Amino acid sequence: MILVVFRSRFSEQVDETYGTTEDHLAEKVREMAGDDLVHLKNYEAEDGERLALVWWRNPDTLEKWRNDPEHQDAQRLGRDKWYEFFELSVAEVVRTSSSVAPEQYPAP
Fold first, then answer.
1. What does the CA dihedral 33, 51, 16, 11 come to, rounded to 10 degrees?
2. What backbone phi and psi angles, to 5 degrees, belong to 18?
3. What does DSSP say about strands 50-56 and 2-10: parallel, antiparallel, or unpaired?
4. Would you write out the chain's pLDDT as a tens digit for each of its 108 residues?
């Protein structure tokens, strides 16, 4: 399993196009990835830092998403306009312990 961790903080230039784009891409990634996308969660701290966690089963599907033209366009807008700061980490999950089996996890 692969875990993508995306930390960010909005710039003063962020506008309504961010939310529209985020909603569209969240729907698109779920459709594209199908059962390969395990979880997609977003959080925002009191200080404004944002955190997105995305779990993938297959690195090939993640690579397909990474190369998606709409996703790449949004990344450019993020670098050029939306984010004051961002950091992306991609990690291989070595082990997971849970109180439930993966197929019983809540839907992403």
1. -130
2. -60, -50
3. antiparallel
4. 899 999 999 999 999 999 999 999 988 988 888 877 777 889 999 999 999 999 888 899 999 999 999 999 999 999 999 999 999 999 999 988 888 776 666 554
